[in-house]
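User: Quick one: structure for sequence A, then sequence B.

Assistant: Sequence A:
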Amino acid sequence: ERPRAAWALRRILARWRDWDGAAPLSLERFSALFAQTLPEAERRAAYAEQVVSAPARVVRQALLGPWGRRKGTGCRRPPLLLIAGDEDRVAPVAMVAASARQQRRAASRTDLQCFSGRSHWLCNEPGWEDVADFALDWALANGRPIPAQA
């Protein structure tokens, strides 16, 4: 599967002259990439109420991360839960699963949970409580302090 996140956000990657500017997201792109599982009226409301331009530099660094340095795979860190939606067009399950495989090299626990029928907007979609409950239950079951390094 090709890297859909980079393809989906290619317009941001292409604007190198505006490295520190804002990366706007149109209603059309938001609807197609992030919230395609929501009814149109809910997509419009979510876009109007919650979507703001992101710093372009942050978006680029996130997208280019897999081709840069890989930190955190051998270090001590708390347990990690990666959550994916099987309808996500920005971070498809295959990409999140690849991140999980990489992170499993760390000594700490790494788990992956996929939610059926969810898009990238999974924490804001109807039924978001199921995602939140799962994450909270997982954190309570797996969270533990990391001993200080000597």
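Sequence B:
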Amino acid sequence: MKLEGVKNHLLLCNGASCTRNGAQEVTEAIRQEIRQLSMQKVVHTTKTLCNGRCAFGPIVIQYPRGIWYDQMTPERGRQLAQSIYQNISYLETASHVYDGRIFLKLEQGVNVNGDYWTGNDEDAHRDKHLSDGDRTKEPSLRKSEKQSD
């Protein structure tokens, strides 16, 4: 595979624990969705062995963003591929993100490359992008300002 033009690399854990929890089905679903969306030249997938988060598997890691996804299912895998295609963030099961220096546990109010994570999977705000002005404010201020709109 030529890596020229690849924008995303998905590491798909297929270690023993993740495999027992459906990693092969997740891998197949992600790869099938990538093919259906004709993204083979921009998204590369690699099956890996254990990534060390067995209790939370199946695990998928997205680079270059450095986002770790826990408890993936085939449907969540398809949603992740679709989010890459649509150039939006998929934070449904994201657990950790690389901030340029270290991996941070995703918690309410964490800014993920311009996306405001509310901590609630059902919350429609999880994929909204903030303006540069909003990013400089405290999360609690952003939340109250958004509610007053």
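The longest strand covers residues 8-13. Residues 116-149 have pLDDT under 50 and may be disordered.

User: Thanks, that's what I needed.
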